[in-house]
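My main concern about presentation is that the manuscript never shows what a single data entry looks like. Each protein is reduced to its one-letter sequence and a matching series of backbone shape codes. For the editor and my fellow referees, an illustration may be useful. For illustration, here is how one protein appears when written out as sequence plus structure tokens:
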Amino acid sequence: MDITEFDHHTPIEGTTLFDGKMAMKGYQLNKMCFTFNGAAARADFLGDPEGYMTRFKLNEAQKQACRDKDVLAMIREGGNIYYLAKLAGVYKMNMQDIGAQQTGMTVDEFKEKLVRQGD
């Protein structure tokens, strides 16, 4: 298939398209995550996550996704993965934790899958 034949509106199963609509939906969540570039902001969030999320006017679904440390739910709520990576770092999550969420596996299952693929 030639790239010019690609239909940019055909959804890819299991993928949330980050477009202008999602950017607007997730603006407050992404704005909050951007602050985690600073150590003081990370400490403030960990000290009072509810207050911090309220300060940035996250909606209830975004707050719940953060409470649950559910990166996929954050993406569905408009989160941009580049900003969400900062929040994942605050929670001391790594790419294997996120990969496990994406595949519906436990972290140990996901790690084993990675090892098997390396053979």
Q: What stands out?
A: The first helix runs from residue 20 to 25. The chain has nine helices and no strands. The chain has a mean pLDDT of 87. The CA atoms of residues 63 and 73 lie 10 Å apart.
